[in-house]
Amino acid sequence: MLRNSLYSVLAALLLAGCATKAPQQKESSGRYSMQQDKAPVEAPDLSHVQDAEPKYEPYSKQGNKDYQVWGESYQVMPEAAGYSETGTASWYGMKFHGHLTSNGETYDMYAMSGAHKTLPLPSYVRVTNLNNNKSVVVRINDRGPFHSSRIIDVSYAAAYKLGMLATGTAPVKLEVIMMDSPAKRAIDEASKATTANSNAITFYIQVFASSSKQKVQQLAQQFESQFSLNSRISEEQNIFKLQLGPMSNEDIAGKMLDTIRSQGYAKSFLIREE
Question: Biased composition, Polar residues: where in the chain (predicted)?
Answer without folding.
Answer: 26-36
